[in-house]
Amino acid sequence: MIRGLMTAAILTLAATASNAMAEVKEFKIVIKDHMFEPAKLVVPAGEKVKLLVINQDATPEEFESYDLYREKVVAGNSQIVIFLDPMDPGEYSYFGEFHEATAQGKIIAQ
Predict the structure, then answer these.
(1) What share of the chain is helix, strand, coil (3-state, %, to 5)?
(2) What is the residue extent of each domain of the chain?
(3) DSSP strand E in 14-86: where?
(4) How far apart are the first and last CA of the chain?
């Protein structure tokens, strides 16, 4: 009986965790010609966000943001996932360190 209760509890927790992950909204940022598209991305404030950063250039780029405390290299012709914790309403800048003159963007939480 205890084993059955433990199994039921584990399944309930797994289902809850799965539902929580399914509710995270995903947004895409594409790197092409050393620029971010879209340059301004609007996301919901107060919600966890999943960013899929796709680098269509042959050379690597770095997604870096002092505002979001994130720094991650995206190899050429590849993609990465970045999870952002719930944000207060506002604008959060990011840039590509390898091509900083052209790779600029903002995430707008509202």
Answers:
(1) 20, 45, 30
(2) 24-109
(3) 25-32, 35-37, 40-43, 49-55, 61-65, 70-74, 78-84
(4) 49
CA dist 87 and 106 (Å) reads: 13
Cβ neighbours for 35, distance < 8 A, ≥ 6 positions apart: 99, 102, 103, 104
The answer to whether 12 and 20 have CB atoms below 8 angstroms apart is no
Alpha carbon 26 to its chain's center = 7
pTM over 0.85: no
On the question of pLDDT at 8 being above 80, the answer is no
Which of 38, 85, 92, 98 lies closest to 66, judged by CA? 92
Question: Using omega within 30 degrees of 0 as the cis cutoff, is the peptide bond preceding 38 cis?
Answer: yes
Q: Which CATH architecture has domain 24-109?
A: Sandwich (2.60)
Convert the pLDDT of each residue in 26-69 to its tens digit: 999 999 999 999 999 999 999 999 999 999 999 999 999 999 99
